[in-house]
Amino acid sequence: MHRIYDLPGGAASGISDSKLPDMQAGWEQGITNTLASLSGLNLCYESVGMHASLLGFCMESMVLGDDILGQVMRLVRGIDVTEDTTSIEVMKEICLGGAGHYLGSNQTLQLMQTEYVYPVVGNRMSPKEWVEAGKPMLIDSEK
Description:
By secondary structure, the chain is mostly helical. The protein has helices at 23-38, 59-77, 83-86, 88-97, 106-115, 127-132, and strands at residues 10-12, 43-45, 50-51, 56-57. It has two domains: 1-78, no CATH class; 80-135, no CATH class. It has six helices and four strands. A two-stranded parallel ribbon has the order 1-2. α1 runs parallel beside α2 (59-77). The longest helix has 19 residues, at 59-77. The radius of gyration is 19 Å and the shape is flat.
């Protein structure tokens, strides 16, 4: 109804039953925020930071939740299907007469800059780099 009447439509969406910012909290917040947002809600409150079914709150979860909400907002934006984004000509050029991969393509770089959501605190190190850095955990991050 909120969309019909152009009103805010919201729900609590990222509450976790987990007591800590752990794996359970991550998947509960990720899934519930994604489902709420893709259903068309335009106001998702208590989307990050809330634990133990609203009995607890964690500042670290708010920081970690920023990456979750960035991914959710990218999903809500949807996928543009145009002649440029389907890349048929680029595929022909690269696969039939080029290097056979897209890593050197200008279009690949442009799409990575506009379509990919780079996490703010999420760890994107290789396993080797992660071990060499002392196996940092997100909850211990000082970013």
